[in-house]
Design brief:
It is a single chain. This protein is α+β, with helices and mostly antiparallel strands and 150 residues long. It contains four helices and five strands. Helices cover 29% and strands 33% of the residues. It has a five-stranded mixed β-sheet. β2 (66-75) and β3 (78-88) form a beta hairpin.
Amino acid sequence: MDPEANKQLVRRFYEEVWALGNVGFASEVFAEDYVRHDLRPTQAAPGAAGQARIAEQFRQAFPDLRWRVDLMLAEGDLVAARWTASGTNDGSWGGQAPTGRRVEFSAVNIFRFGEHGKVVEIWNHRDDLGLTDQLGGAAVFAAPPPSGER
């Protein structure tokens, strides 16, 4: 494994797929049987086509999407990247009508590369709460109990 080459491929993935909308480039990055670990309750279609569809739907919802990589670290077969995205919600997303609101949010992705130089596993940790709040969604929190009660 070449950690620097893996970092370069992840950076190109963000540039090509997310920043430029070349979603077909996902096939250059992801193995067809890659595993996606995501905190959201949705299930993406498998393989590179599933990853491409995620990006395509998000870019349709935020057509002026801007993407920047804030930090990238690599060791062995792992690459971790923190990124920040911004855009205007001018299309439907997550079953919600467009809000016309501008958002900025961040996430961390951890990629594990397989022996053939493609991603075989990804962990996705995005600030969905912050994104939902910026879009005007109701964030539901349980109020803390009054002092002394449990």
